[in-house]
User: Fold these one by one.
Assistant:
Number 1:
Amino acid sequence: MPELPTMTVSPQRSEKTEAPKVAVASLVGTTIEYYDFAVYGTASALVLGPAFFPSGNATLSSLAAFLTFSAAFLSRPLGVVLFGTIGDRLGRRQALVVSLLLMGVATVGVGLLPTYETAGLLAPVLLVTLRLLQGVSMGGEWGGAVLLAAEHAPPGRRALYASIPNIGPSLGFLLSTAVILPTMNIVGMEGFTDWAWRIPFLLSTVLVVVGLWVRTTVSESPVFKARTHTPQPESAPRFPLGTLVKQYPGRLLLGTGAAIGGSAVYYLTIVYSLSYGPQELGIPRNTMLTAASIGAAAGIAITLPVARLSDRIGRRPLMLAGAVGCVVWAIPMYASLSSRNGLVITGAYTVGLMFLALMFSPVAAFLAELFPARMRYTGASAAFILANTFGGGFAPSVATWLNSHWESPLVLGFYTGGLCLVSLLCLLALPETREHEFDA
């Protein structure tokens, strides 16, 4: 494996007041992006199957809806190529503004779609098309957001600042739940299934406008500016992903593996179980949403302290501890569903999502530190997005298939635990990155 990048040119540091502002702007963007994604995930678990893929079999309808959920992950690599090239060649901020705008258009479009009953086969075709656009947007969002924050970070606090936008996935899910639950309670499940499921999608318009305003007010990454203003700088390649695969294949593969288990935990908990619990085990939907929300909130609560600790003792010790915890806890966490007890499920999910926070709090800085500045946007994005695609995107569909053959929540634990074991092994093969400065 090639040596990790070291500082060659000292980048201009952000003003002290700029770094927190950039971190908040990055958090706002990732929260909005993942709100949009979480709304779709929750809607696919609750209503999109019968609305767009009607059949006499509830499992088949759910499977079809989850496959459209997975479709967005297939287009994420295209987003890595597109936005990674923009971010590495033209700047981080420009890529982030475009990705957020694209996500907003696609999400609002889903809220305006006719259903199968109205438009026939055109309805699912349009749904899949908009899902693919959402995936392209997500392919460029995460890497750019964490890089903008990390490259503005003061010395010794890179993981802390990079972890702030990484709170966005859980915060976006909580925000989506805060919209969906009251809507369901007001109009009832029948009204939500009939028409009110569109409300969370349409509310994205307001969030995107706010997000675009925030993102256009922050400055470009000082590392990117320092690199482009250095005499005879080493420019980003025309096709960063191709160069990345040629020069850093081991680092890309292991970085992907390091994040794959956590992706499975996240998506099976906040997407798949919201459908599986009510449909297969008779657990009330509100119980499942509440359990997942409390667990996500607990993960958020420890994210910044864990990231700050990783700036002091290193990324790997905490990520390894989280991976071990996820391997050990995966089976008890999903076995808790058999109890059908809201308190038991909430406790199990809370512990599991806190182990996930141990893994994922330092991951933004860790993946960014694996690659040089001229390919860092593409490298960090590719590793994380590939992990999300294979570990998270297909997880609901795989879980649906597994449970159609083995009717027990234990299979979810074995499946998730196996992927977390892959992450553990990949982390053991990767070096510590805390001491490596960003090169310009």
Number 2:
Amino acid sequence: MKITTKIIAISILLLTLSCDKEIPNDNNSSSKTITPLALTTTPKKFLFDATKAETAGNADWVLDADTSPQRFPTPLQSNITATTTESYWRGGLSSWGIALVKLGHSVETLSSGTAITYGGTGAQDLKNYNVFVIDEPNIKFTTAEKTALINFVKNGGGLFMISDHTVSDRNNDGWDSPAIWNDLMTTNSVKANPFGFSITLNNISETTTNRLSATTNTILNGSQGTVTQLKYSNGATITTNTAANATVQGLIWRGTSAQGTSNVMCASATYGTGRVVVIGDSSPADDGTGASGDTLYPGWTELPSHSRLHMNASLWLAKL
């Protein structure tokens, strides 16, 4: 009976400690007692790219713009609570990053001037992360970077690829995101079209409800909610090719299209032991905030399905 009593007492103490933690508030000026976040049992590391001119022109596809996006967004993500708003960081993808942190994950930025590597010794080598997000790259990947990206996925990593419409060269270097993504898949030293899709060189705007009906697909029916719509505000469609990769599948199509290999707006695939998700428009991830002078739109909150799609896909890529 004495042993049982001690076990009960210890259990009550642990429960009390877990429900009453001091967590700094959003402005770091004081502390407040709150119920801690419902942390995931398997925290994952997400890396957001800022090396490919993601802030060129009106783009702001980073977690925290600041003067130049740094590795760790500021203020500290350790101070994020259940009530923290996206304005805690200043970047077009801040809502996305903060939502991941609220689930117990960590996020970082790969800063401009840093090479994308895999299998190296650097602190931000892709082997140290579960998921790499690249939203509308505007600088072509080097030969070494293409090899790194494909091998990262091949060996278990998750790659979130976001394109934009054709003729969307924001830094005027002769390359836009559809051409850059296609170059990755057609001109690399690992495998031709490893993920089984290409970005169509077009420009469409529409809201669609034409989605895969399978209720078991966790990207469309995941823990973050059910995806029922997707709105493109000038984006490019995707063409899938199961001959190149038998696992590739469309998830969302244009409203008037058959659910085939063309007119795809969001798709997924596996390659090796890793996973890939692709969306042909950067607008749905845009939370409408960023550096001063940028013209941004609140796509993240425009449709509830936008945040659900990106979050479900993020967790699927992280194998959760």
Number 3:
Amino acid sequence: MYGVDGRKFQRQYKQSISNFKDWEQKSHAEDWILYPENLSEQLSLDEVALSDGELYSVLTSKKAKGKKGSLVAVIKGTKSNIIAEYILKISRRSRMRVKEITLDMAGSMKLIAKRCFPKAIQVIDRFHVQKLAIEALQDIRVSHRWEAIEQENNLLLEAKQKKENLQIEIFLNGDTRKQLLARSRYLLYKTREKWTPSQKQRAKILFSEYPDLEKAYNLSDGLRKIYNQNIEKPVAMLKLAHWFKDVEESGFKSFNTLTRTIILNYDGILNYFNARSTNAAAESFNAKIKNFRLQLRGVRDKSFFLFRLSKLFA
């Protein structure tokens, strides 16, 4: 439109207009960048893939709410000793002011938080716990689906051998058994109140055919309801104890594994009920990084990408 070649403008922006050459963190940007001035009392720690699945640990401030001043640190990798080494470059006085840090259940993240911010309360993100519960539920659904596929294959083979037409069972909503289990995936993610009329009909058929799926859904939904209630920590402990008992009685292997995971991260999970803090800010920030990466059609020069990222969010 203005007679300017796009690639030439991009090159000029990078080499002169943007001041990228004079960026004080350029020499080590691919390994780490720090903005200690953005440190606040509440932080989020998470990981994100910049390119080719290569992970970077990202420390963000909740005070800035995903805008300018959010970015505290971006460090290559997820090894606790390496990440901590760079975060410890921030003055001890500043780090001691941090009161709370939200993170997932990764052991490396907890070690980083403990070493770098010893006075901060660690809060395990509720959505990571709920995600595991949903995955435990979906694991049961998927196992039933494989059984249904195998059953249909056997019927098809038998019909071919007998040279007869295959009669496949079709439910009231028009689904075959295999389709019923495949199409139930999304309704199991939601609460009953959010089901559409067709999903209610499908769920009714699904639970009548597979009572164990209904029991597993109730367990997953029960954990969600504990988180959704505005309750204090002691009450949450009691409700979780009852939920553990229900899981034990159910006999589901995947849910028993989830129970052990919750017990191993018990303090961090219960800390959520102090101020109901989540890692949503970090997940939102990660989504912004991915969106920015998508607009640039990938990351060729990591240093320049992080420079532009810091201009927007640091």
